[in-house]
Amino acid sequence: MDKFFDKLQAVADRYEELGELLSDPEVIADSDRFMKLSKEMGSIRETVEKYNQYKDVTSQIAENNDLLREKLDDDMNTMVKEDLKNLNAQKDQLEHEITLLMLPKDPNDDKNIIMEIHGAAGGDEASLFAADLFNMYSKYAERQGWNVEVADRNETEVGGFKEIVLIISGNKVYSKLKYESGAHRVQRVPVTESAGRVHTSTATVGIMPEAKDVDIKLEQKDIRVDVFRSSGAGGQHINKTSSAVRMTHLPTGIVVSMQDQRSQQQNRAKAMEILRARVYDYYQSREQNQYDAERKSAVGTGDRSERIRTYNYPQNRVTDHRIGLTLNKLDRIMNGELDEIIDALILADQTKKIEQLAND
């Protein structure tokens, strides 16, 4: 615990140092440096404020303990003990809050996301489940006050999706939805099943933080752009002009096709947005094989044996296999009530990081 508080004191010392730097005329004159230091100071302000509160509370606890060693009348003794009880509760709460603030921060947590949902194993039923997941995340986003934009879709003749690509924007979207990457398994009787047998199908969900120009710069010479005619489900042409766009990032081989927008210019803009996110995701990993391993780990191949979560319709049950959480409220979850699952995943992640922090 001493090491933890040494780290905490180092943060407090840095905060004081930043305050001095931001009042230096040379720093004020350098707008880029001033902004960078201001952002750093803002990022640790809450931690330092909580630490100062913690020191104040522990000082009051020490004073009360000293009082209890003196000869006090019964009323004063009772009052000091009650005050001490409240102060110890505050101390425990502040320790918990400070620990969470000291956990390593994911630099992408504040970002918007690109979400890709693919129908995987199970044919038509998998595509229908992909559509169900799209509806589930759309309703959850609405509850959060986020905005959902469909960037591209590839529909099936039964009303499902082979693939649908979303841009979800709002407050801290990535911090909550980053745990959704992986293979999602559904167990239910398909509408096409006449014998009433339960089938198992899967859809994969991929979550990528939205990348801006400041995150990654794509050179035009590294991008090949092909245009072609947009087509609808079943292959019929829905546009007689070449408005669909395919972009290939030559250094990585990443390909993005976009045909859902009304014009070639709009398709180009959306394709570039998604390409930038995929390339940023790629370059976050240092080597190609590491990228592939992470991609397979995060999204999976969609095989029925791979899953992060199972949606069992006959028993109205959802199970997240990573944390062993089972909820018998599938109908509510499919209606966008994902908070209980996401909060549990965040807590499990925080618990793991707290253990690592204690061992450092």
TrEMBL record:
UniProt superkingdom: Bacteria
Keywords: Cytoplasm, Methylation, Protein biosynthesis
Subcellular location, record wording: Cytoplasm
Domain Prokaryotic-type class I peptide chain release factors, residue spans: 229-245
Pfam families: PCRF (PF03462), RF-1 (PF00472)
Residues modified as N5-methylglutamine: Q236
Main location: cytoplasm
InterPro entries noted in UniProt: PCRF, Pep_chain_release_fac_I, Pep_chain_release_fac_I_sf, Prokaryotic/Mito_RF, RF-1
Keyword Lipid biosynthesis appears in the UniProt entry: no
Processing after translation: Methylated by PrmC. Methylation increases the termination efficiency of RF1.
Alphabetical list of Gene3D superfamilies matching this protein: 3.30.160.20, 3.30.70.1660, 6.10.140.1950
NCBIfam families in alphabetical order: prfA, PRK00591.1
Family stated for the protein in its record: Belongs to the prokaryotic/mitochondrial release factor family.
Function as written in the Swiss-Prot or TrEMBL entry: Peptide chain release factor 1 directs the termination of translation in response to the peptide chain termination codons UAG and UAA.
HAMAP family: Rel_fac_1 (MF_00093)
Protein name: Peptide chain release factor 1
Provenance organism: Lactiplantibacillus brownii
